[in-house]
Amino acid sequence: MVRGSLSFDVAHLLAGSLVLVSFMQLYQDRLYALLNIYALHALVLAASVAWQAFVQDAPHLYLTAIIALVFKAIIIPTALHRIIVRLGIHREIETVVGVGPAMLLGMGLVALSMVVMLRVTAEADPLAREDLAFALSVVLLGLLMMVTRRNAVSQVVGFMSLENGLVLAATGAKGMPLVVEISVAFSVLIAFIVIGIFLFRIRERFDTVDVQALDRFRGERR
Amino acid sequence: MIDALTGVLIIPAVAAGLLAILPGYRLTARLNVFATLLTFLTAVSLFVVEPRSGSYLLVDDLNKVFIVLTTFVGFTTSVFSASYIGHEIEIGRLTPTSVRFYHAMYQALMFAMNLALVANNIGLMWVAIEMATLTTVLMVGIYRTHEALEAAWKYFILGSVGIALALFGTILVYMAARPVIGEGLEAMVWTVLVQHAAKFDPALLNVSFVFLLLGYGTKVGLAPLHAWLPDAHAEGPTPISAVLSGLLLNVALYALLRFKILLALNPAAIAPGPLMVILGLISCLFAAFMLYRRRDIKRMFAYSSIEHMGIIVFAFGMGGALANFAGLLHMTMHSLTKSAIFFAVGHIAQVKGTQKIADMGGLTVTNPVLGWGLVLGVVAIAGLPPLGIFMSEFLVVSSTFARAPWLAVILALGILVALGGLFLRLNTIAFGPPRGLTAKAEASYVPMFAHLALVFTAGIYMPQALVKGFENVARLLG
Fold first, then answer.
1. Please, which residues bridge with residue A93 across strands?
2. Partner A, chain B 154-213, Cβ-Cβ below 8 Å
3. Cβ separation B188–A119 shorter than 8 A
4. How far is A108 from chain B (nearest CA, A)?
5. How many angstroms separate the CA atoms of A206 and B262, rounded?
6. Cα A101 off chain centre by
7. Which chain A positions have a beta carbon within 8 Å of B124's beta carbon?
8. The pLDDT value given to residue A202
9. Of A51, A157, B168, B280, which is most buried with the most CB atoms under 10 A?
10. Which has the higher per-residue pLDDT, A212 or B344?
């Protein structure tokens, strides 16, 4: 694939959009809006993976794209929507770090991943290296979101967008065997575990999904 | 085609399925013991007939040691677990349904750990370690108390982040291998990677190792990334604490060692050793000082695990035949001793009805067997002669002293500080006037004393075959 060709530009555009959507997640302080943006995140990922499948002529990647589309963009956000309504926390507003600092930190992380990845992959083909740089940005932004939120639902969303970054990296690495399918299967498993067990049990025991409430029960501060 | 290699995977997988359906904890506990025994025997047979390695599964001198250790401690823990769980059902902390779930998860964990150890594919290895993490998350949260849920949540979040970083590192290794080996499955097969490692792009390998070290290092419990470990140990059922400390940390370490070998083969890549040495030293010192303020008995031994993992990672980071040998020996001794301590602690916590150190006292008077078992275990873990850990710690420190005296001094300081912390608490728990509830323990002492006997024997006499085997592996580790 040559720099400047259509296939390169589209792949670049989609991967770049994923980073942009990650940024949008950072400043959502309402859970509904956050879930909608997450659905968009998964949608962009699905488009990006499908494009990779087309460009690399790797039909099995279409499967990954479909899973991203159906499961991550539709089923999970819908289910989380319902949970939020059931728990009655849809009006809650939460941020630990303010929007400004979070965005600045995010920009710093993206700059970091660009510097690191572009420097070390000088010899790799241009698409792969920029894809990796974007993927690392998405992963780091997902991490940032997990540490700047204290609501269990938004932490899970942070984790899932981190996982999206990993899928982007894995599909960008041309001809990578086995792992795409398995990692997707595992993200499904994780989502199930989180939704099914933790949220309901946390609710059942604490009457809140605010992870800060959990901190009160820390092992030794009794 | 079923050989010993697939056997160590099939037996726990089948057992997990059976235990998920069968009712009655007496039967299932026995079945659990039987399955782990069978797995252990199959693992031992690897030394007799070595099966052929394929592109998915691999057996070599390095993982044979790990597999046998894992399946052995898995077996003895299941024996301990049978009596522990019996008591938990009696006092109503666990319901028959959750016990069924617990047993199935126990076997699933054994399966995942064995898969991580025999996997020849770095992607498969990652999947196995993720699976092991998920099963332990579920087991840590099994009591459904506030603390257990918080511990499970913390473990889940931190564990997943670590696992995610490790996957990114794995993808980078593939990216480095692809131009040399070509696209497809081959570029993720460890044995193929090793053959071509010298030609990989060193810059990519360097970055990948940083991710792998942070990722799998989280699972090893290295110091800045250890936050999940004490909670997960303290709040889950004690057999799981024993398996976590004794085995799962080792499995993550094993993954790290595989990648260290890969990096060492590339002359242009950074030396992985110094990074591991630094992290190991930080863990050892940090955990040693943290031991002094612990009020929860299981938490205290969790910190002691961080300290020992630090020493082990330090030893492997130093590298060279002697330090690697010492690291391997220390890992084995730590697994055996720490699980023995948790066996004792589990019964002690059941007798006392609490895990708080302040509510325990004079155990050697009220429950002599249990109390002296714990004393023996702590003496062993603190590294007093003539037990096995003394041997291995002595080897680590002395081999370092010849090459980097200052590092050896810092490490020795950490070990001594930890010794002080452990004995300070042991004094309150085991001696002095009896405090807290007293009851007769309905315990199975066999696993605990079997482990301690092994550690004691290793301290005074090591069979020649074992030394030869460990030397072989140490050479393999470079």
1. A30
2. 156-157, 160-161, 164-165, 167-168, 170-172, 174-175, 178-179, 183-185, 187-188, 201, 203-204, 206-207
3. no
4. 19
5. 47
6. 20
7. 178
8. 52
9. B280
10. B344
Q: State the pTM of this model.
A: 0.90
Question: Touching check for A175 and chain B: CB below 8 Å?
Answer: yes
Mean pLDDT of chain B: 89
- Report CA-CA distances (Å) from B441 to B83, B348, B370, B446: 10, 8, 8, 14
Report the pLDDT averaged over residues A83-94.
70
Domain residues of chain A, as ranges?
A: 6-215
B413-437 residue pLDDT tens: 999 999 999 999 898 888 888 887 7
Beta-carbon separation of B146 and A217 below 8 A: yes
Q: Which residues of B touch A132 (CB under 8 A)?
A: 171-172, 175
- DSSP states of B222-242 as a string? -GGG-THHHHHHHHS-HHHHH
pLDDT per position as a tens digit, B335-368: 999 999 999 999 988 888 888 888 888 888 888 8
CA distance B172 to chain A (A): 8
What is the per-residue pLDDT across A109-156, written as a single tens digit (0 to 9) for each? Answer: 999 988 888 887 776 677 677 888 899 999 999 988 888 887 777 888
| A13 contact B CB<8A | no
Confidence of residue B462 (pLDDT cuts 50, 70, 90): confident
Pairwise CA distance, residues B320 & B476, whole Å = 10
Up-side HSE of residue B291: CA atoms within 13 Å toward CB? 29
The per-residue pLDDT for range B285-327, each reduced to its tens digit, is: 999 999 988 889 999 999 999 999 999 999 999 988 899 999 9
Domain ranges (residues) in chain B? 271-478
Chain A residues with beta carbon closer than 8 angstroms to that of B174: 173, 176
CB-CB neighbors (< 8 A) of A190 in chain B:
134, 160
Q: Which residues, numbered 209 to 238 in chain B, qualify as contacts with chain A under a Cβ-Cβ cut-off of 8 Å?
A: 230-231, 234-235
Is cis: bond before B386, omega within 30 of 0?
yes
- Among residues of chain B, what percentage have pLDDT more than 90? 48
Environment class of residue A178 by beta-carbon count within 10 Å: exposed (0-12), middle (13-18) or buried (19+)? middle
Closest residue in A to B186 (Cα) is: A177
- Cβ neighbors of B101 (< 8 A, separation 6 or more) are B20, B138, B142
Band of residue B113 on the pLDDT scale cut at 50, 70, 90 = very high
Q: What angle do CA B77, B81, B87 make, to 5 degrees?
A: 155
- Report the residue count for chain B: 478
Spatial CA neighbour of B265 closest among B197, B318, B359, B193: B197
Band of residue A184 on the pLDDT scale cut at 50, 70, 90: low
pLDDT given at position A222: 40
Tokens of B165: 């970083």
Give the chain B residue nearest A218 (alpha carbons).
Answer: B147
DSSP code for B49? S
Which residues from chain A sit within 8 angstroms of residue B153, using beta carbons? 152, 198, 202, 211, 214
* B90/B150 Cα distance (integer angstroms): 25
Q: How far B76 CA sits from the closest chain A CA (Å)?
A: 28
Overall average pLDDT of the B51-72 stretch: 89
Enumerate residues 119 to 148 of chain B having a beta carbon within 8 A of any beta carbon in chain A: 121, 123-124, 126-127, 130-131, 134, 137-138, 141, 144, 146-147
Contacts of A189 in chain B (CB under 8 A): 134
CA angle B261/B64/B323 to nearest 5° reads: 50
